[in-house]
Amino acid sequence: MRIVLLGAPGAGKGTQAKKLIEKYGIPQISTGDILRKAVADGTPLGKEAKSYMDKGELVPDSVVIGLVKERLAQDDCKAGFILDGFPRNTSQAETLDRVLEEMGMPLQVALSIDVDMDVLMKRLTGRRTCRQCGQMYNIYFSPPAEEGICDRCGGELYQRDDDREETIRKRLEVYQSQTAPLIEYYEKKGILRRVEGTGGIDEIFERICSILDSI
Ligand code: AMP
Predict the structure, then answer these.
(1) From the centroid of its chain, how far is CA 160?
(2) 163 lines ligand 1 (CB under 6 A)
(3) Which of 17, 72, 82, 116 is the least buried, fewest Cβ under 10 Å from its Cβ?
(4) Of 214, 1, 6, whose CA–CA distance to 110 is shortest?
(5) Distance (Å, rounded) from C-alpha 205 to C-alpha 26?
(6) Cα dist. 112→34, 66, 175, 182, 204 in Å?
(7) Residues 197, 115: contact at Cβ < 8 Å?
(8) Residue 85 CB less than 6 A away from ligand 1
(9) Ligand 1 atom with minimal separation from the 174 CA
(10) Residue 171 annotated among the catalytic residues of the structure
């Protein structure tokens, strides 16, 4: 299964991708995660990306496309993949189509997770992630038993730098102007599916699985 997950920041792409990995046994390719790792490792690429990420802007296409190409060429993507956070604009989508065509593995589905703006805001400002195991929480909807500590591994929970209110507003603006047009892009290609992204995590996952299982 070759999937692109679409949706605004906070729509739940990362959360649902993690569940899809377990069910379908295919890797998640999250450009946000790859970039955050490069920032944490202090690589030259990470240093360049950080200035854009801190402002809630998109990292230049040339940087991101190179990372994705490299990842798609790895063996574990032969059985399929879940792209999360990529493509983010029409130019990235066109390049992706070309690259996948050349590799003989075109996309099968672009799944848009739809969530209202006011819910997105609360999800993003409340989001916390475990530094150690990556488990995600939300201080409003799914808090840990003990504040700031991961239930699963005891690791420290942190707030992403770009989950602060001003940056979030910018990220949502960038989504509306640059990424939302991809919904029409994939609709025209006939591979768009939409899913209502409000409700419990498992409930949304069920909706997603029933769409994917019918493909
Ligand atoms: P995310 O975790 O997907 O919300 O991404 C966090 C940040 O990483 C974004 O606000 C961008 O600055 C950057 N980023 C992630 N994916 C992309 C992409 N496909 N193109 C450009 N920038 C990206």
Answers:
(1) 14
(2) no
(3) 116
(4) 6
(5) 16
(6) 21, 24, 13, 10, 12
(7) yes
(8) yes
(9) 10
(10) yes
Cβ–ligand 1 distance for 182 under 6 Å, the answer no
Catalytic residue at 88?
A: yes
The Cα 129–Cα 150 span in angstroms is 8
Query: With a 6 A CB cut-off, is 128 part of the ligand 1 pocket?
Result: no
- Domains, the chain, in order of start with CATH, read 2-26+79-213 (3.40.50.300)
CA of 36 to the centre of ligand 1 (A): 9
Tell me how far CA of residue 131 lies from CA of 29, 135, 158, 213, in angstroms. 19, 8, 7, 33
Centre of ligand 1 from the C-alpha of residue 127, in Å: 16
pLDDT digits (tens, 9 = 90+) for 84-138: 999 999 999 999 999 999 999 999 999 999 999 889 998 899 999 999 999 999 9
The widest CA-to-CA distance across the chain, in whole angstroms, is 49
With a 6 Å cutoff on the Cβ, whether 170 touches ligand 1 is: no
Q: For the segment 39-58, what is each residue's pLDDT rounded down to a tens digit?
A: 999 999 999 999 999 999 99
Q: What is the pTM of this model?
A: 0.88
